[in-house]
């Protein structure tokens, strides 16, 4: 499904493939020979999503572009099933495994691997050629440190300086969920004006 959002339409080159049950919403631009498989969602909320060449986004992955943090995916990248790429930059030849997550402001360096269910925290920088092991968390800048599951106290010492609530929700830490969700409901109300498009995703060919 191709959806116009905030007046922006997806752009899909002829060499790309988008499965019938996938969703491309808003300012999403696919590179040559990109493949978006069943159930995957690429949504440019108020910032673009752009992929390079030979990118495969597998089943049920979520890729979300944001105003201050667009999603920019390099060439020859795999985004695995159920992966979550939210406002992150993914450089060339990166492997994002099943269930892995990269949060707003994060950068995954070229040739890196986010293995199954691993996390790259907001505003964290993973150097090129890095590996985040299964279920581990990488956090910090200018170079992310690796934390095993259960290292909560050590992780928090790094994580609290990364300003997740400010980066993701635009609010200071300690803001109530009622206030956060009122803001989120207003933000996502922009989808009330969405328009499902016909098969031609590129307005230049209208």
From TrEMBL:
UniProt superkingdom: Bacteria
Protein name as annotated: Gamma carbonic anhydrase family protein
Gene source species: Streptomyces phaeochromogenes
Biological classification of the source: Bacteria, Bacillati, Actinomycetota, Actinomycetes, Kitasatosporales
